[in-house]
Design goal:
Layout: H1 2-15, H2 18-21, E1 25-29, H3 33-51, E2 59-63, H4 66-74, H5 78-95, E3 99-102, H6 111-117, H7 125-135, E4 140-144, H8 147-151, H9 154-160, E5 165-167, H10 171-183, H11 192-207, E6 212-215, H12 220-223, E7 233-235, H13 236-248
Parallel strand pairs: 1-2, 1-3, 4-5, 4-6, 6-7
């Protein structure tokens, strides 16, 4: 009797279209909202490309006040950030999300704390980026992002696990990148002079042996949009969003 019920349920599920089986993506955005707009666009564009017609992604989003997160980050109160973001993730899970995206690279420092608060998976931005790097058979990359992303090791740990070596800019360049992220791009300013300096830093990283560049802040691709480089530029936000669609459609 039980086996018959299982077969019946399986047969019904097997008849469902990909559209009907699509999982719901939970995203914690506002980190900043500028890049969250890109996440929303990429998630929906990717689903539309995969399924065609009028299909779009099933998304539950909670957008934080970035000023609160920024203040806690600058004071390095990661416990408070972890509790706040973990609580939000739990609310998204309760509302029906099947996975969680943290819409910023730096916030993955507390990904383990957030994962401990929920029973659905976090799709980790560094893991998805590492997979994209492996697919291009690259062994050494430069990591650009906030000082927390560049210096705290959580990104390098995920990359090293896939056999990827990581180099980062020098002290002066790291300070410049961090300031540009928080005081310019974080408030929607994408300045030509800043773009030029970023391109110079990338050239230095390539000269130092980088075979690829991780744009490890989701605002950096917005600054460098339309630019080309002699080595691959890895757009972490885009890679992250596409990985979420992969999850949602399997």
């Amino acid at each position: 009797m039980i086996r018959n019920v299982i077969r019946w349920v399986s047969s019904i599920f097997g008849q469902l279209s990909k559209e009907q089986r699509m999982k719901t993506i939970g995203i914690i955005g506002g980190l900043t909202w500028h890049s969250t707009v890109d996440y929303y666009r990429i998630l929906n564009e990717t689903v539309a490309e995969r399924l065609g017609g009028a299909n779009s992604a099933k998304i539950l989003m909670y957008s934080v006040n970035f000023a609160e997160i920024k203040a806690l980050t600058f004071s390095q109160d990661w416990k408070a950030i972890g509790e706040m973001v973990g609580g939000i993730a739990k609310r998204l899970e309760t509302a029906g999300a099947d996975c969680i995206l943290l819409g910023a690279n730096t916030m993955h420092y507390i990904a383990g704390d957030v994962q401990a608060a929920i029973s659905i998976p976090i799709i980790h931005i560094a893991e998805t980026t590492a997979e994209a790097i492996v697919q291009q058979q690259i062994k050494t990359v430069a990591l650009l992002g906030t000082v927390y992303t560049m210096e705290m090791g959580f990104y390098q740990e995920k990359l090293s696990a896939r056999g990827i070596d990581t180099i980062i800019p020098d002290d002066e360049d790291r300070a410049f990148i961090n300031h540009a992220i928080y005081e310019e791009m974080g408030i929607g300013q994408f300045l030509p002079a800043t773009k030029e300096r970023f391109l110079q830093i990338i050239e230095k990283m390539v000269a130092a042996g980088a075979q690829g560049i991780i744009m490890g802040c989701t605002e950096i691709p917005m600054l460098l949009r339309g630019e080309t480089c002699e080595v691959p530029l890895f757009d972490t936000g885009s890679i992250h969003a596409v990985a979420a669609v992969d999850f949602a459609l399997t």
